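The methods section describes the discrete structure representation at length, but only in general terms. Since the whole study asks how a given chain folds, the encoding of that fold should be made plain. An entry of this sort, consisting of the sequence and the corresponding backbone structure tokens, reads as follows:

. . .
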Amino acid sequence: MMVDTQMPMWIAVPPSLLQLDEASALQIRDPYGELLLDRGEIIADAQLLQRIQAIGLCNVEELGQIDEVDSQEASPVRSTVRLEEFHLGPGTLLFLSPEGDAQGDSLPAHLIGIIPGEDLLVRPAAGPAQETLRVRLAKAASIDVRVAVGQDVLRFASPLRLSCAQPYWYLHLGWPADVALQQDRLCPRLPVHQPVLIEHEGEVRRSALLLNLSEQGALVQYHTRLGKAGDTLLLRFVLPTEQGHLTLALPGIIRNRHTGMQSSDVVLHGIEFSHLDDAEMQAIRRHVQRGLLAADKN
């Protein structure tokens, strides 16, 4: 396990270096030190790409030897992919909006059924606050869909085939012709190895392990799942500062889960922070920067 003083030498792989069907410029490992991809290997599997985006780490010294990291600016849209490559399962969290809608709001929904290459069945969230958007969705010819995969977001438009009210409200969407894999989270993540207390509404407080940290989120290890995608958790952990220590209590949303490579009893949760104030953001930023600077000096 990568838990010794060499931990800061490993940082998250820059998204600009991750491409389907291209050879990896780096050796990439998971937070435990297990090899995910060797240098020169081709990322031919979309599921492997998702895993690397979520938990992949590379050596700082090797990263500094690659000219493209400094000179190549990442494009907001990295590539066009096929939706069937991602094996989205029932319960996958989606965000829906009418295609071309100028109001810009979206409605959370869950995937309830899928026929690869043909159909998607989704169940949007219901409630009085969603009625206006519900009407706009039902009248739309096509629906814009977003779904998080690892560190990126899939974006596509699906034709609306049917809006059904019984036995509950659901939408029957056609298979999208074009799917874009877009970079939405580009903050550097620093590997850490420290306890974090997890609070989930209606449940007892649980002690888990924080494996990496950025301004936008964290990777948390626990022996079973802490919730489903879209659930909100409260993370309590301590960061060292110039003045001593700072205790943070940060709300976060579960964006993805992965089973650990070493054991099926280990579940890794990708958490996206929400509602951070400026002081909390600055504390995390300084901590990550100190870790990266320490890695450069080793």
